[in-house]
Amino acid sequence: MTAVLFGITLIASAGVGVVNLITEEPIAEAKKAATIAALNNVLPAFDDNQVTELEIDALPIKTYTAKAGGEVVGYAVETMTKNGFGGAIRMMVGFTPEGEVINVNVLEQSETPGLGTKMTDEGNPLITSFKGKNPADMKMAVKKDGGDVDALTAATISSRAYVDAMSRAYKAYTQVCGADGAAAESGCATDNEGHEAQEGGQNE
């Protein structure tokens, strides 16, 4: 019986390994394609981008410095938060060189259907609170907490999490923009103070 169980386990493990080998490359290609699509959605046209990996508030953040003809045309930040009602939320946020939000693309979320999931809808209150604005000129919190961001109806926790991810994206933008030496030329901000998203305990 022991030999039979060992044989079954060995065969099953080998099968899982083979499936992993077969699917690993297609999964990686699909993720790469999704990232490119997200970048194109939040940035103006570009022909080159430089990836920088950061850690902000103990979370991994990726930034993309987009260039066209050698000139910086924008920055994209793959940001995240763990404070969503359903867990982690990942987003791609595009900034102009001056720090205005171009667009936001929600990459991953597990929020309540019909409530928190509305953060993915075009023209929802969260994205309209940010598009075309510079977070440096905003109080980064939902209006219920005294901030400038319109929350999703009946989805306070999801809205706060969205703002938290946006705040982290702006921190990453300021770090990378300043490191590029573009601050003096483009006016990119370098001061994150006062832009923390406020946390709360309201239910979805």
Set out the fold topology.
Elements: H1 2-42, E1 48-56, E2 59-68, E3 71-84, E4 87-95, E5 101-108, H2 125-130, H3 156-179, H4 183-186
Antiparallel strand pairs: 1-2, 2-3, 3-4, 4-5
Description:
The protein has 204 residues and is α+β, with helices and mostly antiparallel strands. The protein has one domain. Helix content is 37%, strand content 25%. It has four helices and five strands. The chain has helices spanning 2-42, 125-130, 156-179, 183-186; strands at 48-56, 59-68, 71-84, 87-95, 101-108. It has a five-stranded antiparallel β-sheet, sandwiched between helices. A hairpin with a 2-residue loop joins β1 (48-56) and β2. The longest helix has 41 residues, at 2-42. Residues 182-187 and 190-203 have low confidence and may be disordered.
Total count of domains: 1
Query: What is the spatial order of strands in the main beta sheet?
Result: 1-2-3-4-5
Radius of gyration: 20 Å
- The rough form would be described as globular
User: Could you give the count of β-strands?
Assistant: 5
Structural class: alpha+beta
The proportion of strand residues reads 15-25%
Largest sheet: 5 strands, antiparallel
Question: Helices and strands, in N-to-C order?
Answer: HEEEEEHHH
Alpha carbon gap, first and last residue = 52 Å
Stretches where pLDDT is under 50 for at least 5 consecutive residues are: 182-187, 190-203
| Helical percentage | 25-40%
Specify the number of helices.
Answer: 4
Mean pLDDT: 86
